[in-house]
Input
Amino acid sequence: MNTRECPSCKSPVADNVDMCGTCGWQLNVGIGKGGASIVRPAVRPKMPCVVQIAFTDDRTGSSDQFKIGIPITVEGILTPVVAKAREVKVWFQVHGDLDEGQDMVLLLDGGSPEDAKKAVQTVDYSGGGDAPEHHLDAVEKLLNTVPWIADPKKARGAIVLLATADSKPARSGKSARQIGEEIKTRGILLYLVCEETPQLRELSDAAGGWLFKISNTPDPKEMQQIAAKVAASITIQAGAGATVPLTAP
Output
């Protein structure tokens, strides 16, 4: 009986068979009958955890210039997380200038990612006074009102701020550093998609968070990179219950 060599494992294979008995290589398929392995990579199951993501969106008129980029950013963050986590619950809050009567409004309370994508489309970016705004109050509000699940093996939480300009001091009297340190102590991840300012940088650094530049026309490659890091950091930490440092782009 004539034999030939398996192109995959180099084992001798009879001419009258289509599959290598050693490695499973299919010999008579593919371009030029070069073959292909019948071994397929295992499908990774979704992380057995709940991911809690709370957005707060600056609805003042200064954000109007980014009204196209903000929904793209929200979807770009949520989509890869949904692909990895068993369950994703979303809170979506809008905030403005409290001195101008723009109170915080919770548009979505523990809803689905699809609901969040719809909610961000309804935001009217208008009004407010001169910058800065009340971003620290908005972040602190989410920190204290979302029913965060404390066990990192069961769930992982993240706060995402979408904002322009700097922040006014928090009405609680806490500094940006103090709020950031509390976020970090409680094991909640922080992502700031914003214009970099002293207060927001201090908040991000204290929380061990990530700060990305807000854009009306986000670069697709940058969005993919940001989304990948957001998804990876949330799901990896949710599964392991430990901090995994990642470098922001």
